[in-house]
Amino acid sequence: MSSSILLILLARWYYRPAAMFATIMLLARMRWETSMRLRVQEIAKEKGFTMGRLRRTSGVSHNTIRMIYRDPYRPVQSTTLDKLAAALGVDVSELVESSEDTE
Questions:
Q1: Which domains does the chain have, with CATH numbers?
Q2: Residue 103 in contact with residue 89, Cβ under 8 Å?
């Protein structure tokens, strides 16, 4: 697991929400776009979820899910990842793949 993912998870578990959000946005500006990829579409397909079912189950807006499907490298809020992971029945760390994991 990459250090960026660990930082995100540590922030999520130990800091106040405002500090967590600031940490995630800092990481997003530093590296997200080039090294982190969301696997939401792949996992949803494996589990038989359509975009509509994922929207209804997670409470995440259709537009947000569509943007994640179209651009899996875009940064998202940790609350969105939490909702998607809960709906898909997986841990948040399974939704995020770093380029280090794929090499």
A1: 3-102 (1.10.260.40)
A2: no
